[in-house]
């Protein structure tokens, strides 16, 4: 337990320091390349003046921090390798989207069907891995019980649905300074704690402790430049990469049913978009002033920093509930 604790602290420090040290090199570099954020016209008008042109694709810092910290930990288990590959795979989809938007100056980036196809391919691969090689195979832990539900042939389609859902939920949460990086820092810390408790009975969870801590540390370091007022945004490169890592951690720990509790903010974000779009198509009226839901609170008059602080606090509460549920 103490050894794991020492490793976790070291991994967090390494990943956060790498991001902090690389920031002053990467941010000016992105500015010189004019890789700036394009703000959606249908988004909050205040964002156009304050955020347009801010360097994006900062997710590369998070990915580098996570990978380097994980490598220096010396843990190269299959859980670690699959988690890193999942982060890189989904991050690649995000990178292509960002590249098309900010480098090729095509504001919409990848077409919706291209993004979903890419996500589905990597989700299927991750789900197949989970069914064949994760500790519990096709069983999933039911929160607040000692039950491991056997899904059998339904595991892969259910896992694919969950993976794509959570990856897009993380992506939609990236809309305010420090929101996604802060929420994901808390979520990954919670999964690191849960995996650490599991590792007392099965050492294969040690790898999940490492990658979760490394990702949390990278998010912590990224907040140095992403907190309001943000000097850099993570872009889809970062948000999809974080979604890919979170999905891999949930698959490896069989905690897909626990993920909606700890990651409740992601679920709220994606549901707000689904509800808004569905209701508007039927009635031509809106449920929320703007979706995703963090923009709704902005339009209600909340300051950006208040929205972020409240969402962070909600995630802390949900994380404690999620940890208690297992």
How would you describe what is shown here?
The protein has 326 residues and is mainly α. It has helices at 2-32, 45-51, 59-73, 78-103, 112-133, 155-173, 179-199, 206-226, 235-253, 259-262, 264-283, 293-299, 304-325, and strands spanning 139-141, 148-150. It is globular. The mean pLDDT is 92.
Main traits of this protein?
326 residues; mainly alpha; two-stranded antiparallel sheet; 13 helices; 2 strands; 72% helix; 2% strand
Low-confidence stretches: none
Q: On the 0-100 scale, what is the average pLDDT?
A: 92
β-strand number: 2
Instruction: Evaluate the radius of gyration.
Output: 19 Å
How many alpha or pi helices? 13
Instruction: Provide the structure class.
Output: mainly alpha
Order of helices and strands: HHHHHEEHHHHHHHH
| Lateral arrangement of strands in the main beta sheet | 1-2
Q: Based on CA inertia axes, which overall geometry fits?
A: globular
Could you outline the blueprint of secondary structure elements for this entry?
Elements: H1 2-32, H2 45-51, H3 59-73, H4 78-103, H5 112-133, E1 139-141, E2 148-150, H6 155-173, H7 179-199, H8 206-226, H9 235-253, H10 259-262, H11 264-283, H12 293-299, H13 304-325
Antiparallel strand pairs: 1-2
Helix pairs in contact: 1-3, 1-8, 3-4, 3-8, 3-9, 4-5, 4-8, 4-9, 5-6, 6-9, 6-11, 7-8, 7-9, 7-13, 8-9
């Amino acid at each position: 337990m103490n050894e794991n604790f020492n490793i976790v602290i070291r991994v967090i420090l390494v990943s956060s320091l790498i991001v902090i040290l690389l920031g002053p090199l990467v941010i000016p570099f992105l500015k010189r390349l004019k890789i700036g954020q394009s703000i959606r016209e249908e988004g909050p008008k205040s964002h156009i003046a304050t955020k347009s042109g801010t360097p994006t694709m900062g997710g590369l810092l998070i990915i580098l921090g996570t990978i380097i910290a994980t490598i220096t930990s010396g843990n190269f288990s299959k859980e670690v390798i699959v988690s890193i590959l999942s982060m890189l795979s989904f991050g690649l989809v995000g990178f292509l989207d960002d590249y098309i938007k900010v480098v090729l100056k095509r504001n919409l980036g990848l077409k919706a069907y291209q993004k979903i196809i890419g996500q589905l391919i990597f989700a299927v691969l991750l789900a197949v891995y989970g069914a064949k090689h994760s500790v519990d195979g096709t069983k999933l832990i039911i929160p607040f019980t000692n039950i491991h539900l056997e899904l059998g042939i339904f595991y892969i389609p259910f896992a694919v649905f969950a993976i794509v859902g959570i990856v897009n939920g993380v992506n939609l949460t990236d809309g305010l300074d420090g929101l996604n990086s802060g929420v994901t820092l808390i979520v990954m810390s919670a999964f690191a704690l849960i995996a650490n408790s599991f590792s007392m009975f099965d050492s294969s969870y040690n790898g999940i402790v490492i990658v979760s801590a490394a990702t949390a540390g990278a998010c912590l370091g990224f907040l140095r430049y992403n907190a309001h007022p943000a000097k850099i945004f993570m872009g889809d490169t970062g948000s999809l990469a974080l979604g890919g890592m979170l999905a891999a951690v949930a698959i490896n720990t069989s905690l897909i049913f626990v993920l909606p509790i700890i990651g409740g903010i992601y679920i709220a974000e994606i549901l707000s978009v689904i509800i808004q779009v569905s209701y508007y198509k039927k009635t031509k009226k809106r449920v929320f002033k703007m979706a995703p839901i963090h923009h709704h609170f902005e339009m209600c008059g909340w300051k950006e920093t208040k929205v972020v602080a409240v969402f962070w606090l909600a995630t802390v509460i949900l994380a404690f509930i999620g940890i208690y549920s297992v």
